[in-house]
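User: I'm preparing a small set of examples for a lab meeting where we compare how different chains pack in three dimensions. I only have the primary sequence for this one, and I'd like the structure in token form so I can line it up with the others. Please keep the answer compact; I'll paste it straight into my notes.
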Amino acid sequence: SLENSNFIYRCSLATIKDEETTFTFRENIARTFMAIDPFRLEIDGEGYQVNRGDSCQFNSKQTVHCTGKGDAINIMITDPSYRAMVQFLELKPGEFITEKIENHHFYFVYAGDCIIKDFSFSEVLHEGDLITIEAGLNHARLKIMTEKVLQLVRVDVLKTSMV
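Assistant: Understood. Below is the structure token output for the 163-residue chain.
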């Protein structure tokens, strides 16, 4: 649960409804915040403008104030041997991407529809859908295709050897 922090990592779509807010303090959590809508963050008094696809990292000991309304991806990690990388992808009609899967990936469809497939499966994803792909499950290459504009968030969760 979020209250007990009994997770290694947690990924969520955060909808910020108030124009001014201070993020909730969570003990021993590293956070990655990726803007889908533009925000102004103040982390321990230092200001950052974050636009679509920009991300900031901070930890539970820092004070974070946010200005702006909208959506963002919020990744929380409790185990210091993990880290997260997040990317906002936008594909135009007829475009596709092919990726080699080497880690644990999450793909979240923010807007649009797509077909995601490899050698062993094919799946149609719609707005709001989430799919998890793990390396080692015969997902050597992944192809994502769309016939309309697609906005996709890719999250990689990596286990590092350094703590």
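A couple of notes for your slides: The chain has a mean pLDDT of 86. The two ends are 24 Å apart (CA to CA).

User: Perfect, thanks.
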